[in-house]
Write a structure and sequence with these properties.
single chain; about 280 residues; alpha/beta; BirA Bifunctional Protein, domain 2; six-stranded mixed sheet; three-stranded mixed sheet; 11 helices; 12 strands; about 25% strand; BPL_LPL_catalytic
Length: about 280
């Protein structure tokens, strides 16, 4: 069975978390590191926004600063994500890898099988729903707040009819980077306090819609699930979903050095985070 790297990094700053993902992508494109599955957490808890979002227009920057949360723009698309009581994953693999379909949507599906198996390893009745029809898209979409879990994807992972994971993908230098948020718990009011709305009434309506469409692991699990148990479930989940052997290792010195440079010159700068 093919071997991929499996890395669990310590809690990092928002800039470093995004920089590490990009560093792995760059060095994988140069053939210096193998395909990689990484799990990570954030210090401090962080609001990340999608590459195409307009930060000043969509995010309540005053509330964000008062909250003490970190802030970063991702290299991937999608909407705002609150990285707090959750586990973040990333998968980095070449576009021309035999396991990766050329279609973006089908590659997304293959990688997301790891998530599906992880939820199932926790004893949850998770399923992957194709959003091929307008009816299915409507079922899992919302009127359109800036929150990531409000945004329908090509395939949705659902438990009890509600979305349980938010993922995004980018392709650069012939490499796929897919990463996403696996929510253990979530402070919905905190998330929505960080987003801009035309009125309080619209905000309340969006929050209600969000709660009807999205759910966390501990809302559907019959028992509390902690971070370490989640890692223990999703590691084998990605191994079985991708049909590979995951070999536990650490970031290389070159990856760390490149990540530190990217964090300093890109992901911690206002030019990157606020530019749109």
């Amino acid at each position: 069975m093919e071997q991929w790297r499996y890395i669990v990094t310590e809690a990092m700053s928002p800039a470093m978390n995004m920089a590490v993902d990009e560093a792995i992508l760059q060095l994988h494109s140069e053939g210096k590191v193998p395909p990689t599955v990484r799990f990570y957490t954030w210090k401090p808890a962080t609001l990340s926004i999608g590459y195409f979002q307009k930060a000043v227009k969509e995010i309540n920057m005053e509330a964000l600063h008062e909250s003490g949360l970190g802030f970063v723009r991702r290299a991937t698309g999608g909407r705002a994500v609150l990285h707090d009581k959750e586990l973040t994953y990333s998968v980095i693999v070449s576009e021309d890898h035999p396991k990766m379909p050329s279609s973006v949507t089908e590659a997304y599906k293959i990688i997301s099988l790891g998530l599906l198996h992880g939820f199932q390893n926790l004893g949850l009745k998770a399923e992957m729903v194709s959003l091929a029809s307008e009816e299915e898209k409507e079922k899992y979409s919302s009127p359109g707040s800036s929150a990531c879990f409000d945004s329908p994807s090509w395939y949705e992972l659902v438990v009890e009819g509600k979305k349980v994971a938010g993922s995004a993908q980018t392709r650069q230098k012939g490499v796929i980077l897919q990463h996403g948020s696996i929510l253990l718990d979530m402070d919905v009011e905190l998330l929505f306090s960080l987003l801009n709305f035309p009125s309080e009434r619209v905000k309340e309506r969006m929050m209600d819609s969000f709660r009807q469409k999205a759910v966390t692991i501990n809302e559907v699990s019959p028992r509390p699930i902690g971070l370490q148990e989640a890692i223990a479930a999703f590691g084998p989940g990605f191994a079985s979903g991708l049909e590979v052997e995951l070999v536990s290792t650490e970031l290389t010195a070159e990856e760390l050095a490149l990540a530190e440079e990217l964090a300093r010159t890109r992901y911690s700068t206002d030019e990157w985070n606020l530019r749109r």
